[in-house]
Design brief:
The complex is a heterodimer.
Chain A (H helix, E strand, L loop, with lengths): L4 H20 L17 H19 L9 H4 L5 H21 L1 H15 L5 H22 L8 H5 L5
Chain B lengths: L1 H11 L2 H19 L5 H12 L4 H26 L8 H12 L3 H34 L4 H17 L6 H15 L2 E2 L6 E2 L13 H19 L6 H7 L10 H23 L5 H15 L2 H6 L5 H17 L1 H7 L5 H12 L6 H6 L1 H31 L5 H20 L2 H19 L5 H23 L6 H4 L1 H37 L1
Antiparallel strand pairs in B: 1-2
Helix pairs in contact in B: 1-18, 2-3, 2-4, 2-18, 3-4, 3-9, 3-16, 3-19, 4-5, 4-6, 4-14, 4-16, 4-18, 5-6, 5-14, 6-11, 6-14, 6-15, 6-18, 7-8, 7-21, 7-23, 8-21, 9-19, 9-20, 11-12, 11-14, 12-14, 16-21, 19-20
The chains are: A mainly alpha, B mainly alpha.
Protein name (chain A): Tripartite tricarboxylate transporter TctB family protein
Keywords (chain A): Membrane, Transmembrane, Transmembrane helix
Organism (chain A): Kiloniella laminariae
Amino acid sequence: MTLSKEKLGALCFFVLAIAYGLQAQQIKLLPGDQFEAFTARTMPYALAWLTGLVSFLVLILPQKGSGETFSKVFKGLNWAPTIVMMILMILYGLALTPLGFLLSTVLFLVAGIYTLGEKRWKIILLTAVPSAVGFWFILVKLLNVYLAPGEIFLALNIGA
Amino acid sequence: MLDGILQGLSTAVSPVNLLMVFVGCFAGTFIGMLPGLGPISAIALMIPITYGFDPSTGMILMAGVYYGAIFGGSTSSILINAPGVAGTVATSFDGYPLAKQGHAGKALAIAAYSSFSGGTIAAIFLLIAAPALASVSLSFQSADYFALMVLGLTAVSAFAGKGKFLIAVLMTLLGLMLSTIGIDETAGLQRFTFGSLDLMDGISFLLLAMATFALSEALMVILKPAARSKEAEEATRGKLGSMKVTKDEIKDIAPVVARSSVLGFFIGVLPGAGATIASFLAYGMERNFASAKEKLKFGKGSLRGLAAPETANNAACSGSFVPLLTLGIPGSGTTAVMLGALISYGVQPGPRLFVENPAVFWSVIISMYIGNIILLVLNLPLIPYIARLLALPKQLLTPLILFFSLVGVYLVSNNTFDIHIMVFVAAIAIFFRLIDFPLAPMLLGFILGGMMEENLRRALNINNGELSFLWERPITAGILAITLLILLAPLVKNIRDLRNQKASTANDGEG
C-alpha cells in the first residue's frame, strides 16, 4: 500500500464529510424554517461542504508533508500493551457501578501496572492500594464528594 | 481601573489563592516535565479538582499550572532533550548542549531568570493592553465576533507548520462538526444524537480535552516508548552542576530578554500563534542579531540562544490571555481549555468580564505575576529534587495518569458511559497523532463552534438573512480582510516556490 499518511487522513475526512452531510439531512426542521436564513441544518451543511472540499484538495494536490506511507507509521509500535490498557479502561468503566470506586480502581491500577511490565507484586500493591485509598479519602472525606458504593456491596448489605 | 486592580490584588494575595498559585506551579512543573504531557493535559487534569472552587481561585490555579508546565517543559528540554511541551523545543537547541557540557544548573538558572523576566514584562503589558482592548471590544457586535472567530480558527491553521495548513483546517472543521452534536440551543432540535440520551447534551468539552490530550498522550508513551539517555539518568540523580550566573552573562543576555519579551507578548496576543511560534521566532531573531562569532555558538550551548526562546514562550503565555479575557476568544489550545473551564464555573469571558467580574479579571492577571515569582523563588532551588521525579518508572506513572484522566471526567458526570466514549476518542486521537494531524485546532474548533454558530445566526437575523454584514461593517470587513491575507499567504508562497523550482529545473536542463 503506497498511500501516504496525509492522503489516508484526507480520505477519512472525505468519507466523514459525506456521512456527516447525509446525516445532516436527517435533522428535523421547525414549521416555517424553509423561510428562515439560518436553521439547525445550515451550519452542518456548510461544514460538510467545506470538509469535503478541503479533504478533496489534500487528496489531489501534490504531496507537501513527509510523504511517509501509513503502513510504515503503524509498524514497530507497542500495540499489545496499548490495546490491553484500553480494554482495561473499558472494563474499569464497566466495573465502577457494580464494584464501586475503591475496588475497581485498585483492580484497574494493579492490572495496568502489571501490563506495563512491573512484575513485583509488592511494588504493584504498594503503588495501587495507597493511590486508590488516598484519592478516595481526599474525595469522600475531605472534599465531601459522594461516591456510590458498589451494587454488589449494597446487595450484600455492606457499606450501605 | 485602580479599584479593579486593588480588588484583584486582594483576591490574588489571599492565603488560599497564594497556596493555589504555589500548588499550580509545582503540579504544572511536574506534569510539564514528563515527556509527552503538555500544558493542555496539565490544565485539563486540574479542571475536575477545581469544579467546586470560586472562579478566581480556579483560574489562579490553572494559570499557575500553565506557567509551571512551560517551565517544567524547559527543564526536561534542557536535562534530557525531551521537551514535554512544543513551546520549549527551541529551548533544547542550546539548553541541552549546555547540560551535556556539565552546565545543566546554569542552563536551568538562565531558563528560570529568562522565564521570570519574560513573564513579568508581559504581565505588565497585559495590565495595560487587556483593559484597553476590553473597552474597545464593548462596541463589537455579533458580526465582528463571528469574523474574529473565523480569524482565530484560520490563524491557528496557518501557524500549524509547513505544509500542514489544509490538514489543520480539516482538524478545525472536525472540531466544529463535533460541536454540532447534541440539542441545537436555539431551535431545541436534536442533531447527530442517533437517539442516544447520553449525546443529547453534546460531547463534554472536558471529556474531549482529557481524551485527546491527557489520555492519548499517556497512551502514546506506551505505544512509542522513548529510550532513556545517560544524561537523563544523571539528571534524575540530581547532578546538575552550579546554578550561578555571572554578571557578564547577565549583561550579555539582558537585551535578548527585553527584545524577546516584547516579541513573545505580541505573538501570544495573535490568535492562533502562541508559545511555540514565539519561541522559534525569538530564537531566529537573536541568531540574526548575533555577531558572526556569536552566531557560531548557536546550537552548541549559546546563552543567548537559550534565553531568547525561554523569555518569549513565557511572554507569549501572558499574551495569549489578552484575547481570552477581553474577547472571550481563545487563541490557542491551552487557552481554549481555560475558556471551557471558565464557562463551567459560570463565568462568560469577554468584554463584559472586565465590568461584571473584575475580581476574576484582575486576580488572574496579578496571579500571573505572583506565579512568576513563585516559579523563580521556589522551583529553582527545588529543581534537583523535582528532576528526581523523572526517575519514577513509567510503568507506575502511566496507569496513574490514565486513572486521573478517567476519574476526572467521571466525577463530573457520574456517568460510566463517558469513560467508554473517552477510550473511543483517545483511540481516534492516537490515530491522528500517528499520522501527524494536529489536535489543538480541533479543540479550538470545538470550543468556538457553538459561539460561532450563535453569532452567525444572530448577525444573519439582524441583517434579514443578507450576508452583506460581512463587508458593510468596517470592523467585520477589516477582520475578514486579515483572515483573507492569512489564507492567501501560503498560496502565494506555494506559487513562488513552484516558480523557483521550475526555474532551477530549467537552469539545470540548460547546464
